[in-house]
């Protein structure tokens, strides 16, 4: 190998073509040597005073300056690629975003085991992320309420302490991401807490903020997390609280007070965090009502007028593949608080078995470019688990790299993924092929024979070219724009068959091999040939891969869908 890649692309990279024999380091910190399997040898790492951050490799010596952890990550990236030799290089690094974060939802799917958490943190360190948010909902180990999350694989305090410590060793702040207003369905569905629900169905997830006892309950939850975590940042949630002010509180007041209740509740949450000298993070959508209907949006705009948001970081999320202009406008919705926000693109891995690379890469690119130009504080790229987090964590590694390269480098993520992963180019091409919109957004419905698939393929099949009317729901309309391909099963079958032909003879890692099997089974369904054994074999493989990276709890959320499809195939129901 005569070329060396660094993620993200450095500010300055000088390589004169010379190579030195490398046998290992004699003073690389033991933690890095052990965790990244770097040999012990005669080379010396020397810290020097110099402006900025960088690495200079000379014969038998590596000089580093500035951010030490960033320099170590660069050195390890080089060793991973070059093995027993090192290039004579000088590298200067500089970051646009001081906050470079990854946000992982563990609440709607499987909880990563400790080895997986550490693997994720090592990958984040190598790529120079410095923040890792764990989205808990009910899976934090509250001592005051030990019943919360008990049956869903919640993390123990000992596990969390080990994760936090491991991150600290890598220069990554591990911080909690909570839900203390909406998205509390797994807590509110427990019998002793249903009385706190705003809505008549606790599964809707919004707490009755009008009720003082309900508010105090959430403050108890927050205080325990704040006391436990050493992190500077505490994410208090606050997104999608659409039912707030519309249920029990409306019954009491006879007046819609959603925005007022939101401001009151979050004022108290923010004060709890600030009183401990920490920085609150809050999702930004309800501050402007950005995802509500126009008439509803006007009611929520008053929330942003409150001074309480002066003391928080606003997490501005948007997962669409719309234009840079759209995202620039979104960034500027927050007025004077623009520079304190962090933008939150997403990996489009939720509600499907494989992430949509096309949507994710466009979303990341078109969100981060204006964020950089508008002077935003940083980014927190998100991985969600809606509908059971069916997509394996292993599928996200290339996207984690791509996000950093797009954010801080030159965007050339493909060859850097190959360099650091050791993967063959043809395998990467399969990854990207599976990540195209047509496949990633439809295969789950075809594979499982979902009601959505049946509705489009049986009810709407005669209206293939008809333009669907807007539902008035931004996200539903956006999603329907992709799954309309289910109408024309003949065209979809042809596309699937072309894909299978391209990937049929490629030797793949087992997780991608599983997706190829899903494609094969999808083709059989479209031909009317699907059978019981297809799903049983697939389910066994899926369960094995799940259990290699996650705890056993919540596997049933996905596996019942697969075996349910097997049962329907066996009974020839559809």
TrEMBL record:
List of catalytic residues: 240 (proton donor)
In Gene Ontology terms, what is a biological process of this protein?
carbohydrate metabolic process
The source's superkingdom equals: Bacteria
Q: Which CDD domains match?
A: GH20_GcnA-like (cd06565)
Q: Which GO terms describe its molecular function?
A: beta-N-acetylhexosaminidase activity
Glycoside hydrolase family 20 catalytic domain mapped to chain residues: 97-302
Q: Which UniProt keywords apply?
A: Hydrolase
The record's listing under InterPro entries reads:
Beta_hexosaminidase_sua/sub, GH, Glyco_hydro_20_cat, HEXDC-like
Q: Which family does it belong to?
A: Belongs to the glycosyl hydrolase 20 family.
This one is known as: N-acetyl-beta-hexosaminidase
* UniProt source species: Caldanaerobacter subterraneus subsp. tengcongensis (strain DSM 15242 / JCM 11007 / NBRC 100824 / MB4) (Thermoanaerobacter tengcongensis)
């Amino acid at each position: 190998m005569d070329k060396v890649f660094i993620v993200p692309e450095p500010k300055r990279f000088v390589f004169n073509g010379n190579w030195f024999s490398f046998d290992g380091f004699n003073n690389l910190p033991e933690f890095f040597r052990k965790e990244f399997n770097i040999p012990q040898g005669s080379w010396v790492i020397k810290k020097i005073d110099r402006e900025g951050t960088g690495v200079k490799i000379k014969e038998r010596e590596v000089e580093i300056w500035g951010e030490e952890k960033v320099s170590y990550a660069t050195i390890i990236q080089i060793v991973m690629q070059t093995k027993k030799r090192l290039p004579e290089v000088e590298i200067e690094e500089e970051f646009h975003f001081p906050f470079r974060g990854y946000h992982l939802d563990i609440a709607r799917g499987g909880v990563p085991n400790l080895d997986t958490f550490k693997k994720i943190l090592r990958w984040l360190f190598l790529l120079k992320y410095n923040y890792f948010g764990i989205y808990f909902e009910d899976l934090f180990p509250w001592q005051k309420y030990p019943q919360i999350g008990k049956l869903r694989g919640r993390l123990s305090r000992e596990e969390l302490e080990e994760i936090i410590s491991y991150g600290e060793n890598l220069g990554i702040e591990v911080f909690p991401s909570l839900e203390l207003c909406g998205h509390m369905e797994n807590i509110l569905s427990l019998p002793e807490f249903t009385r706190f629900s705003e809505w008549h169905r606790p599964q809707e997830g919004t707490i009755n903020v009008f009720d003082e006892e309900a508010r105090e309950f959430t403050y108890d939850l927050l205080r325990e997390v704040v006391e436990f975590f050493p992190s500077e940042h505490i994410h208090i949630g606050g997104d999608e609280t659409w039912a707030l002010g519309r249920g029990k509180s409306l019954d009491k007041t006879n007046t819609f007070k959603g925005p007022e209740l939101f401001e009151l509740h979050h004022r108290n949450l923010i004060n709890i965090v600030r009183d401990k000298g920490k920085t609150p993070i809050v999702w930004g959508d309800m501050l402007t009502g950005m995802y509500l209907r126009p008439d509803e949006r006007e009611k929520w705009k008053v929330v942003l007028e409150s001074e309480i948001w002066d003391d928080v970081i606003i997490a501005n999320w948007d997962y669409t593949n719309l234009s840079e202009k759209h995202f620039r406008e979104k960034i500027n919705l927050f007025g004077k608080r623009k520079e304190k926000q962090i933008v939150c693109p997403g990996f489009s891995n939720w509600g499907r078995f494989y992430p949509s690379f096309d949507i994710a890469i466009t979303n990341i690119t078109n969100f981060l470019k204006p964020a950089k130009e508008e002077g935003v504080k940083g980014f927190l790229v998100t991985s969600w688990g809606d509908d059971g987090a069916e997509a394996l964590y292993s599928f996200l590694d290339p996207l984690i790299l791509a996000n950093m390269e797009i954010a801080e480098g030159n965007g050339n993520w493909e060859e850097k993924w190959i360099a650091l992963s050791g993967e063959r180019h043809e395998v990467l091409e399969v990854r990207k092929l599976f990540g195209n919109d047509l496949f990633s957004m439809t295969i789950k419905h075809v594979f499982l024979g979902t009601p959505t698939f049946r509705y489009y393929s049986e009810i709407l099949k005669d209206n293939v070219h008809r333009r669907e009317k807007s539902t008035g729901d931004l996200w539903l309309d956006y999603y329907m724009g992709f799954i309309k391909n289910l109408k024309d099963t003949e065209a979809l079958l042809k596309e699937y068959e072309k894909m299978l032909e391209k990937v049929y003879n490629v030797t793949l890692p087992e997780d991608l091999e599983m997706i190829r099997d899903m494609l094969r089974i999808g083709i059989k369904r479209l031909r009317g040939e699907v059978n019981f054994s297809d799903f049983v074999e697939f389910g066994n493989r899926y369960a094995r891969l799940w259990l290699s990276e996650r705890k056993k709890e919540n596997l049933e959320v996905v596996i019942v869908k697969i075996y349910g499809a097997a049962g329907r195939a066996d009974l020839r129901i559809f």
